[in-house]
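Usage

Read records sequentially. Each one opens with the input sequence:
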Amino acid sequence: MTETLKANKSTKKDYFKWAKRYNALREENTEKFKWLNLALMILFPIFITCMAEINQCKKVSVFARFVADRPSVILFDFAAAGVIFILLLAAFRKGWIAALVQSFVFMALSITELFKYNTNGNHLILSDMKLVKSVKSLKSFAYIKITPALIIYCAIVIALLVVIFHFNPVLPHHVPFKRAIAGICCTILCTGMIIVPSFYSPVYKLFKLDTTAATNAFILNEKFEHNSFLAFLVETASESYSNRLSAPDNYGEELVDNITDDVAVASAAGFKDGVQPNVIVIMSESYADFRVFDQLNVDDKYYEGFDKARSEGYAGTAITPTYASYTVRSEFELLFGLPVRGINAPNMPQRVLADREQPALAQYYKKWGYKTAYVHPFLGTFYSRNRIYSRFGFDEMIFHDDIDNITDFTVPVEHYGTYVDDKTVYDQLFELVKSTNEPIYIHTTTMQNHQPYDQGDDPNDEFGNYLQWIRHSNEGLTVFLDELKKLDEPTLVFFVGDHFPSMRGETSVYNQLDLNGSNCSVLYEQEYFIWDNYGADYSCVPEEPVSFFYMPYVLINIIGAPHDEFIEKMNSFMENVPVYSLDYNDGTPDNVDLDVLTYDRVIGDVFSPCPIPSEAFESKKGAE
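and closes with the structure output:
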């Protein structure tokens, strides 16, 4: 035992001696190879920029073509990377630490971009990093494939980091003032490049960056093709900052009253024929009718259940505020009856809401004597739904967490593919309806049809597998509606997909259709149906397409629920501004009144008529 301890101590002493000798050698290298170290520090920003760009391009040849076509953009990338490196060098003094930090950030962003585009055909923007807390959840969505090229590119970066560590470039100790000045100047440059239009606009123009306003996902992707990785991240960050939300001009109670006072309340109380039906809103994840593309020759068999429901009820078209991702944008519009455009169309609108009770549609139903429930067969922590949506007026919130094997479902949970089977969700909805004595309002966002679509007879037939998922969903839908027919409770069902599905980047069906920023509007048109089991009157449903956020008022009108001035005003907007979405039509002018009401309801002081009891709302505000 004693000999073993002595041997261990001897090994440790040898290690420390070796480490001290090597550290002494590195310190000698700092002075001995000054010119080499200077060259390493000058060339490193160029090197790491090239490696990050090559990695997300996948091939050196693709990057080379981009350099030849857009040399000014690459010069911008080099300059930006140089400023960042100088800032890090000023902060850490040691060259290897600055290089390590910049390498990690650049390559991490590059790899994330690579996987994101391969997963859903959309490119990375910095606001996506808000989802970093949900990385555990995101793993189930992404196509993550470690390729030999990725390993090689990372190995090259690591190799240079080892070289820099060995030669040990270090700023002299006697220049703290110069380091501070350099750090301050670089910080000012980085900040100005994001938040000062008078600075970044001429810079972008000088380097010929594409600064086209990205009003839909396809235009954003086209901008990426022109700017590539680093310049795209910087330019979209400055664009996002310039579009940040602020209070409307002259915002206050008088302004809001002037907007809502010009309408007369048509129905102050009572439901149509005295009937208070259950209202079920089903937002089906990634559900879309690809038969709109004749060239795909999609067989009707995949949509039999959907077609049957549309023939039995009312069939229409709604304009979704998103494509391929950001389900919470569609969810926001259906839960609040407000446009995301009214708050500058953030990708994740729930993150800009005021931290208080929210006048969502569920609050109205509670006021009318309904029970309210939110059902989502996925993690409650994803998009912070369990925390944020708890302020929307739901009596009950039901989630299912596959990762930690925790569920709120009261029916047996089955899966189809990666996620909970839509049939399980329909069973849960039916159970809620049966077990509630009062009429119930339910909003559910399903998960079954979410990517990945690599499960099926042919894992590479992404579109074919997707259609199989849709067919299975429709089979469950038919069973659900048949059960409601037998139920002696009046029930109204609204069914719509949140957006067209995410598909892999270069090989997706969207590329086969040759869609681009000017012809992609069809991807924002979602077919829906309204169905009932009691003989509802659909004469009030608009025949022309309307934005998602109007659909809650369509349902309110069908059941003849009481209106207040706010609901009447939204009905007025539905007649005069049926579609309010930049993604679908960037030619639609801003509607100041609609924007003011949206801000007032979810961020402002809620001066507009509100379903939340005024005393409860005021006490909540006072507590804050």
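Summary fields computed downstream for this record:
- Confidence is low (pLDDT under 50) at residues 619-624.
- The first strand starts at residue 278 and ends at 284.
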